[in-house]
Every structure is written in structure tokens, then in C-alpha cells.
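batch job 7 of whatever, protein = Homocitrate synthase
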Amino acid sequence: MEQRVLLCDTTLRDGEQAPGVAFGLPEKEMIARALAEAGIDELEVGVPAMGEGEIKTISQLAALHLPVRLITWNRAVLSDLQASYLTGIEGVAISIPTSDQQIKNKLRKDRAWVLDQMGQCILNAKKEVGYIVLGLEDASRADSTFLAEVLAEAQKLGVDRIRFADTLGILEPLKVFFTLQDLVKISGIPLEFHAHNDLGMATANSLAAVQAGFKALSVTVGGLGERAGNAPLEEVAVALKYTLNQEVRLDLKRLNSIGLMVSLATNRKIPRAKPIIGGDVFTHTSSIHIDGIKKDLANYQTYPPESVGRKHSTSFGKYSGRKTILRLMKAKGIEFDQDRIDELILKILRQTHLLKRPLEEEDIMGIVVSAC
């Protein structure tokens, strides 16, 4: 088994399932290159069963010979796999429902059929590709006994990795940790956790899976994906390094540019408070915080912003306070008496309310100059 946790990006597959998102070949190539150059471990690049256009696009990505393993997503259907083989791709992910809910009410089949169909597809794929991921759809609602049976069969058939999918995003970290430990104990195959963010716990659940012994995590840039999205690459990568003290091969300084690239390709703005890549996440406005970082960055520093290509900054708002304004004026060589300072602070507060945003240094200096 691999010791370092693998980051398996599915922006070009599950990310493209987000409403209104469709990448053209130039965008797919640009994103794939950026992620590969940053050091991502694996790219899931599409679904060949969608048709000739998708097969052609994936074939062109494969022809780039990027320094990363490329895989495609497939249902446990032989025709899906046949389409994947046409792309020249290195590996395939074969996904099959494992919860009784989906086996009975989506497939209209039973557990025996699932095991048989899974086996046929794995044996077929082993003749054509060098790497096989078995995806267990809706595994978070599956019976534990049946999951154990699936794992045993997959190991016997020589699968390279098994993906446990929390397809509906219903799990929480404690359940992930205690439930998945049992799977790790019985699996001789590396396990991957595929989190969805329906309840806002995709990153936390991904970390819990690693703590339980999982060796790979499924992620997307910015958390892009079906419904509420997937576990965000940037959050998971930084949390692995600074919360779990895990080795991360990915160049974290590239996260911001990759996030912006995907934002532009999808026409989706990055929320200002988005962890890691949001515009405001290293900006301090409260006078208490500003005073604290001036004395020692560690007072209000979760991790070094320089590690992700960012830096601390300050802005001015309702809670900036007198000390922050005076510090700026002193740095600029400007002195006012007490009454003028009180008047200045009131003007700054009014402007903050008017603009509905924190003020930058140039905004403050404009108010100061007008008061001179």
C-alpha cells in the first residue's frame, strides 16, 4: 500500500456534473496540465460512454502524456468499458451501486447480480488497462456485510483500489472514522473516500477517512460537482498538511491560480470567504486581530499564507477601531488632533456602510486627504 495519501482529482468528471458546467477541450487540457504540473496524483477525465465527442476529447488528453495517471468513469456495463478502451487511457473506474436502496430501486436487481456484473466488468478491464478502481456508489447507505463481501471479491479479482462513495453526503466525521476503520481492517486493497458536500462536511469527512486508514481521497477544484459539490482540493490538501501533518506532493502555491482558472472556465465566482482561495481569507479587519498580527503573526495565523502563495493584508471596517486608523496615519506622517480623529472615524464608518465592504488603504487615505 502507498504510504502517502493520494489526491485523486475528478474536476473534469464529477466537477463537470455541476449544473451549467461544460468544459471544452482547451479548458480540459488547460486544467489537466495545471493539475499535473502542480503534482496531483490522478485525474479522472470524463465518461467515454457519453459518445464520440467525449471519446475524442479524452483521447486527446491521453495523447498529451501528462506525468499523472488518467482514468475514466464507467458504469459496470461492458459497453461503457469498450468506449473507454478506445481512448487509450491508462485506467478505468468501474462504478456500481452497493446500497439496497439503489440496487432494488434504481437497478431493479439484487445483490447477486451486482457481484456477478462487477466480476464480469473487472475481468474484462484487466485485459485492456493497467489500473482499475472499483467505485462503490452509495456505500454510506450499504449493508456492512455486503460491503465486506464486495471487498473480498474485488481483492480476489485483483482490483487496484476501491472507492467508497458517500454519494448523498450524509455522513459525519465520527461515523466516517469509526465505520471506515472496520473496512480498512478487512481490505487488502487501498481504499479511497469520495465525499459529497450536501451537509457541508466533505472536507471533514475526508480527513476522518484518512485518520481511519484510507489511502486516497477524491477531490475537485473549488469543490465543484453534483448538487452541493465534492470535497475541495484546496481545503483537503492544506488540511492534510497543516491539520494531519501528512506529506503532500501537491504544490500548494499553485492552488490559487488553479482555483481562478476553474472559476473562469465555469463562470462561477470564488466566494470571498472561500477557505484557502477566497479573496478575504487572509484579510484582517478587527483592530484586535490587526494589533495581534502586528505583534506576532501566530496570534491569528492558521497556517502561513505564503505556503499557498498568499499574504496577510488589512482592511478597515466597523470594528477596525481608533488604533488601526492612527497606525496608518502615523505611517503616512499625518497627525490630527483628537476632535479631527473622531470626525475622521465617523466618516470612515459611514463610507463602510455606504459601500457595504471593508475599506482598503487607498480608500482611507482618500478620506484623510479630504479632511486635511
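notes: The longest strand covers residues 69-75.
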